[in-house]
TrEMBL record:
Organism name: Volvox carteri f. nagariensis
Domain Vps53 N-terminal, residue spans: 15-249, 271-404
A Pfam family: Vps53_N
Gene Ontology biological-process annotations: retrograde transport, endosome to Golgi
Signal peptide: none
GO cellular component: cytosol; GARP complex
Keyword Transmembrane on entry: yes
Full protein name: VPS53Df
Residues spanning the membrane: 766-788
Keywords: Membrane, Transmembrane, Transmembrane helix
Lineage top rank: taxon: Eukaryota
Coiled coil: none
């Protein structure tokens, strides 16, 4: 028997009979079971045939059943479609029915809505007719004002519903009836106000309580009649009160609110004492007492009528007209008789005006809407008298300040005129500001505060701003007048060639240099203060006058003054340097056989710069000092170059001497600074070394005077080495330093050396010499290409 079941082989898709036989019977000995194997295969074939036959027979019966099931399914589907069509038809019929029902409901809704509107309109029309009828019945009875007010208010509310139906005759007739009733009611109310309150002649009579109640109810009627009737009542009331006011103080002028008030000449003459300007404050006292006296009557009016405020406005208007007339009469009397009506000085008049304005301002703050109602009358007088007085005082202060500066020779006090400001990175620079500038701006600020707070923020302040500009422009002109000038009288000029005209010279003494520095500092101070003053004026003045208080011209004047000061300093320094240049052109350069350290003209240039540097360094700020150096170099270097081209017959010795002069050493302190900075640079390079190269680089790069065991120990600590590395490096350093001749020991014993000359000079000398250093550096940089061309 084979070792495997052949069934698995027969089921394979890649069955190979030959291969199967070879596997089952590999040799002749295995053929002994061949008959049995054949018998098994035949039985297997018979079994498979039987299974195939059964499968075919069963499949034939299933096909018939499937056909029968499919027929049944088709019948059920057709029945289902029939039912769906029935449902769809019924739903369409239901939708039509619903639409018909909804259409009927919508018609009913519209009918109901229109019916409700009609009922409401009829009810309102009936109520309106009833209200108008009741109003017609009660309008003639003046003791039923409250009832009339209610009827009018109800009628107005109902008439709002019929505004779109005014074209209907019935509604139009009711509206005409209501207008006629309101006209009758308006006449009755106004007549009652005039009767119950009374005219000016009945002012002192006390009103009975029943009349007060009647007035209160009449106010209710006026409220419902509208704003126009209320304005008529207020016009009559203000006219009555102002008539009493004018009869008390005389001088009826102008148009009042709603009526024209007059006063007889006899009354004006009787009250002439009250028309004086110094008696003007009595009017405000009278008005305050009047408000207190009539407080009970004014309290009857509704609060939203603002009766006291309206009376205040009318009072302000009449008082303003009186005030203008009084001031115009005073002007006429001054022009005709040469003196004031009250014979007071301008200063006293200004003081009283300021006092009166302050009081009016306080009352205006309480009145709210009465701002500037009366004080506007003073604007013309204030511009004429107040500003004139301020001008006299400010110009007097300016003249006095200029005289004081002349007495002090235009030099500030040591303590008061000093302003400290940064100068570079070290120390400070003392900037001098003249005391006259501070005094003038102090007075201007005080005048501005006084005018804006107590006098006016309108045309008077604008006129005062113009005065400030004139005063500051005059002060700038005085400072400009003090500046040293050229022969032509200017502060700037183009220098002539070396040896040419001297019209551009500006000869400055030491005192002149200090004065010019002070003028420069003062000009910058005034420029900054003027900018701040312009901002303060713009904030203080009324917004529509803000464009009339600009101080740009004054700022430009002080900027021009600062520029002129800088130009004068530049011309002054170049005037001094012109002598050494002239000496340079007169030297015999062809006779020089042996070169020296420097020529006489170089020493002269250095002397000039060293002489003026301390004064300019102390008197100028850092920015101005740097700008001055640039401008001096820009003016001097071209002239030096021109002077070199004017030289004749320069021999080899002279050319070498000129090269030495142009490449001269810088001052001693520069060498010291460079040497000390070289030590620092070498130390940084040593710190960048690796530990194994640290000793060699230290001995190679560090100067001998800076080498010591202690310094090397500090360097090792700075590199954050561990103790073993530090111990090894210190031993190596001592060994190599000993081999180099004890250089480390000598350095440790000697310590560091100090420059002999620099230890005797303070930081002040360094700061003052910076000007010389900067100038010489610029000269060397610009002249080196010229020397190469020669």
């Amino acid at each position: 028997m084979p070792s495997r079941k052949p069934v698995d082989m027969f089921d394979s898709e890649v069955f190979d009979p030959t291969k199967l036989i070879n596997q089952l019977y590999p040799d002749e000995a295995s053929l002994t079971d061949l008959d049995k194997f054949v018998t098994v295969l035949e039985k297997k074939i018979q079994h498979l045939d039987q299974e195939r036959f059964n499968a075919v027979r069963s499949q034939g019966g299933a096909h018939a059943r499937a056909r029968q099931d499919l027929t049944v399914a088709h019948g059920q589907i057709e029945e289902l479609f029939t039912k769906i069509r029935d449902i769809q038809r019924k739903s369409e019929e239901s939708e039509v029915t619903v639409q018909e029902v909804c259409q009927d409901i919508k018609k009913l809704d519209y009918a109901k809505k229109h019916l409700m509107k009609s009922i409401t309109a009829l009810r309102r029309l009936a109520m309106l007719m009833a209200a108008v009828t009741d109003l017609e019945a009660s309008c003639d009875s003046r003791d039923q004002y409250r009832k009339c007010a209610n009827h009018v208010e109800a009628a107005h509310q109902l008439m709002e519903c019929f505004q779109q139906y005014e074209a209907i005759p019935k509604v139009r007739s009711i509206a005409l009836r209501l207008a006629a009733v309101e006209a009758r009611l308006q006449y009755a109310v106004l007549d009652d106000f005039k009767i119950l309150i009374g005219g000016p002649a009945n002012d002192g009579l006390k009103m009975p309580p029943e009349n007060l109640e009647r007035l209160a109810t009449a106010c209710l009627v006026v409220d419902v009649l509208g704003k126009e009737v209320q304005d008529q009542v207020m016009d009559w009331l203000c006219s009555r009160e102002m008539s009493i006011y004018q009869s008390a103080f005389g001088g009826a002028v102008g148009m009042m609110v709603g009526a024209t008030a007059t006063a007889t000449a006899a009354a004006a003459a009787a009250d002439a004492h009250a028309t004086r300007l110094d008696k003007f404050e009595q009017r405000f006292g009278w008005f305050r007492e009047r408000l207190k006296e009539k407080r009970e009557v004014w309290g009857l009016f509704p609060p939203h009528w603002r009766v006291p405020q309206m009376l205040c406005l009318a009072f302000c208007k009449i008082t303003k007209a009186h005030l203008k007339r009084i001031l115009s009469e005073d002007d006429d009397s001054d022009a005709g008789g040469g003196g004031g009506a009250d014979s007071m000085s301008a200063t006293e008049a200004r003081r009283r005006l300021e006092k009166f304005r302050a009081r009016v301002k306080a009352e205006q703050q309480q009145a709210g809407t009465a701002v500037a109602r009366i004080s506007e009358a003073f604007e013309g007088v204030l511009v004429q008298y107040y500003v004139d007085q301020e001008e006299r005082e400010l110009l007097g202060a300016l003249d006095g300040a200029v005289r004081e500066e002349v007495e002090r020779r235009w030099l500030p006090d040591e303590e008061e005129g000093t302003r400290t400001s940064p100068a570079g990175g070290h120390g400070c620079c003392r900037t001098r500001v003249l005391q006259s500038a501070k005094k003038i701006f102090f007075r201007i600020r005080a005048s501005l505060t006084r005018c804006s707070e107590d006098v006016s923020r309108g045309p008077t302040l604008v006129a005062l701003a113009q005065l400030f500009r004139r005063v500051l422009s005059g002060y700038a002109a005085e400072l400009m007048r003090r500046l040293p000038k050229t022969a032509a009288g200017g502060t700037s000029a183009n220098p002539a060639v070396v040896g040419g005209s001297t019209h551009w010279y500006v000869r400055l003494s030491e005192e002149d240099e200090r004065v010019v520095c002070c003028l420069l500092a003062t000009a910058e101070f005034c420029r900054d203060e003027t900018k701040g003053l312009a901002g303060a004026l713009a904030k203080a003045v009324e917004p529509h006058f803000a464009d009339r208080v600009d101080c740009g011209e004054v700022e430009n004047a002080f900027v021009g003054l600062a520029t002129a000061c800088m130009n004068v300093l530049v011309l002054g320094i170049n005037t001094r340097l012109d002598g050494p240049l002239l000496k340079m052109t007169k030297m015999k350069w062809d006779a020089i056989k042996a070169t020296g350290d420097k020529s006489p003209f170089v020493a002269a240039i250095r002397k000039v710069l060293l002489d003026c540097a301390p004064r300019l360094g102390a008197g100028l700020e850092a920015a101005n000092l740097s700008s001055l150096c640039d401008k001096v170099a820009r003016m001097f270097v071209p002239r030096l170059r021109e002077a070199i081209f004017r030289l004749r017959r320069v021999a080899d010795g002279g050319m070498m001497q000129l090269a030495i002069d142009m490449d001269a050493d810088l001052p001693a302190f520069t060498t010291y600074v460079e040497r000390e900075m070289g030590h620092v640079v070498a130390l940084v390079k040593v710190l960048q070394s690796r530990p194994e190269q640290l000793v060699d680089n230290y001995l190679l790069l560090m100067p001998p005077a800076a080498q010591s065991l202690m310094e090397f120990q500090r360097l090792c600590d700075l590199k954050a080495l561990n103790r073993k590395q530090q111990s090894d490096l210190l031993g190596c350093y001592q060994l190599k330093a000993g081999q180099l001749g004890g250089r480390a020991g000598g350095g440790e014993a000697g310590g560091g050396t100090k420059h002999p000359s620099m230890m005797t000079h303070g930081s002040r000398t360094l700061c003052n010499s910076s000007l010389v250093l900067l100038m010489l550096q610029l000269l060397l940089i610009l002249l080196l290409p010229m020397y190469l061309l020669l």
